[in-house]
């Protein structure tokens, strides 16, 4: 597997260290953050694409099904 060396400011390193889980490497942390950002971008692209006919009824159905799963 190829490797790349990154140079980051100490401040950035400290912030990443706060987010890093005990059992994960920095590579795994960065991959997790990138994937999360990608998912958020996808959600932003979906904003406005759904026509809410009856929002309250839809939310009731979502909560009902969520309760059934638990």
Low-pLDDT segments, ≥5 res: none
The level of helicity is 55-70%
Number of helices: 3
- Report the span from N to C terminus: 41 Å
Strand content: under 5%
What's the arrangement of secondary structure elements?
Layout: H1 10-19, H2 26-46, H3 55-69
Description of the molecule:
- The protein has about 70 residues and is mostly helical.
- It has one domain (about 10-70).
- It is built from 3 helices and no strands.
- It is elongated.
Notable traits:
3 helices, elongated, 70 residues, 66% helix, mainly alpha
Q: Short description, anyone?
A:
By secondary structure, the protein is mainly α. 66% of the residues lie in helices and 0% in strands.
